[in-house]
Design a protein that fits this description.
Blueprint: H1 13-39, E1 53-61, E2 64-68, E3 82-84, E4 91-96, E5 109-116, E6 121-122, E7 132-142, E8 149-156, E9 161-168, E10 171-176, E11 179-186, E12 195-202, E13 205-210, E14 213-219, E15 226-233, E16 248-260
Antiparallel strand pairs: 1-2, 1-5, 3-4, 4-16, 5-6, 5-15, 7-12, 7-16, 8-9, 8-15, 9-10, 10-11, 12-13, 13-14
């Protein structure tokens, strides 16, 4: 808020105050216009570059969840599962415990899968050739009841995840294969806290960073790897109640960037 100074000169105090008020109102006008423009943001693709991604949602038929690819993804939104935040600063991904799952998993997801060539082909890169990096700025916003587990970003191999950022209650872990508790990042994570997750894969290894700090290095050699990001809820109606849309995991993503070199 701009500071004002009262100038006590006989007969002109009111005029100075009026001038200050007029200038303050004029200065505030552009900011209000900018906020209004931001509020018009309708699609997640206006916040995140989704040109080389496809989306899987927790909707559809049994073991056949909805998938959205380019060019449809560029103008797609599906509240509450995949939507822009008010203010156009981030995208919310949500997967409820009663959501549709893929044939290879018993858990629902609202998640991006890395693609290539403008979203036409599925990415599949080698950890022993080149350097492959994913950077995600995200925050875990909600956890399912009874089994408060949620995955926010991952490196996936041909058949299974290689390493992920996994929140269990207030404990944030980096996994290695089936070892869910490979590395503890923090045991006092607070929902809504934004952080930067980074994976760097090269020379048969994956370096995993949290807010710029190297947390662990995982040895992995594979030819068909790809990145994923969003909300992969680690609970379903068999282990989490209530079994309805109001019981979900949710992740807020404000930045996502992939580079290959």
């Amino acid at each position: 808020m701009p500071r004002t100074r009262t100038v006590v000169l006989a007969g002109v105090t009111a005029a100075v105050s009026a001038a200050v008020f007029t200038l303050s109102a004029q200065a505030a006008a552009p900011a209000a216009d900018e906020r209004a423009a931001a509020a018009d943001c309708a699609y997640p693709s206006e916040v995140l570059d989704l040109s080389d991604w496809k989306l899987t949602l927790p909707t559809g038929e049994e073991e056949d969840p909805t998938e959205i690819t380019q060019p449809e993804l560029a103008s797609f939104s599906a509240a509450p599962w995949f939507r822009v935040e008010p203010g156009c600063e981030a995208v919310r991904f949500r997967a409820a415990v009663n959501g549709v799952t893929t044939g290879g998993s018993s858990y629902p997801r609202a998640e991006l899968r890395e693609m290539t060539d403008g979203g036409t082909d599925e990415a599949a890169w080698s950890t022993t050739e080149g350097t492959h990096t994913l950077v995600v700025r995200e925050a875990f916003m909600a956890l399912p009841e009874e089994r408060p587990y949620l995955v926010g970003a991952q490196v996936h191999g041909g058949d299974d995840d290689v390493t992920v950022f996994r929140l269990e209650g207030s404990s944030l872990y980096v996994t290695e294969g089936d070892e869910r508790h490979h590395h503890l990042v923090t045991d006092d994570y607070v929902l809504g806290t934004e952080f930067e997750a980074r994976f760097v894969a090269e020379d048969g290894e994956i370096d995993v960073y949290y807010n710029g700090r190297l947390e662990t290095t995982i040895r992995h050699e594979g030819e068909t790897n790809y990145f994923k990001a969003g909300a992969y809820t680690q609970a379903n109606c068999g282990n989490s109640e209530p079994c309805d849309d109001g019981n979900y995991g949710e992740v807020r993503v404000s930045r996502i960037e992939v580079t290959h070199s």
